[in-house]
């Protein structure tokens, strides 16, 4: 089974340094369109902010950062480094800066963005996510009861259950690989088809 760590709900924190205010936001996001939408919302809500710097990580391979006009690598990089050091995925951290009149210098900026990012991560509820798949299980009436019992014993999640006169179609969510999922129902007269859809989810 594969796992990643993310956050349960969005959070925000405020960090102040020499009159400048850094408002950090953390969101759970699943794709670039969702990232774009969250950033647009922040910019619309903070039209007088000098910068909206951010970094996101969608998977172990996909991440991005932006200094949004701050000196190169003074904002986006320290934000991203906090995401990486906490081993988070599917998260966006954006820091909205209101300039307070005093320049902080490169090291001061880097520390401010690092600190504000760390604060919002530390205040978040970190959750473990499993890679999930969906399976369509077809069963006749005779095998329905033992099949449902096995689904319950394994704590699989039933997403849909439809039926005709002589068979049932059940959509099941599981973190098992296909070969392991099939072995659960070995000896039962059921047919199993795996969906191409895979995603990260909790098993609450």
Description:
The chain is an alpha+beta fold. It is 30% helix and 40% strand. It contains five helices and ten strands, in the order E-E-E-H-E-E-H-E-H-E-H-E-E-H-E. Strands 1, 7, 8, 9 and 10 form a five-stranded antiparallel beta sheet that branches. Strands 2-3-6-4-5 form a five-stranded antiparallel beta sheet, with helices on both faces. Strand 2 and strand 3 form a beta hairpin. The longest helix is centred in the middle third of the chain and has 18 residues, at 105-122. It is elongated and about 75 Å long. The two termini are 16 Å apart.
Q: N-to-C terminal Cα separation, in Å?
A: 16 Å
Question: What proportion of the residues is helical, as a percent range?
Answer: 25-40%
Please compute the radius of gyration using only Cα atoms: 23 Å
Number of distinct helices: 5
User: Spans with pLDDT under 50 lasting ≥5 residues?
Assistant: none
Total beta strands: 10
Please trace the helix and strand order, writing H or E for each element: EEEHEEHEHEHEEHE
Q: Write down the overall mean pLDDT.
A: 93
State the major sheet: 5 strands, antiparallel
How would you sum up the global shape?
A: elongated
Structural class: alpha+beta
| Proportion of strand residues | 35-45%
Keywords:
alpha+beta, five-stranded antiparallel β-sheet, 10 strands, 5 helices, about 200 residues
Quick rundown:
Helices cover 30% and strands 40% of the residues. The protein is an alpha+beta fold.
Write the layout of secondary structure elements.
Blueprint lengths: L2 E5 L3 E7 L2 E9 L3 H14 L5 E7 L5 E4 L9 H10 L5 E8 L6 H18 L3 E15 H13 L3 E7 L3 E8 L3 H7 L5 E12 L3
Antiparallel strand pairs: 1-7, 2-3, 3-6, 4-5, 4-6, 7-9, 7-10, 8-9
Helix pairs in contact: 2-3
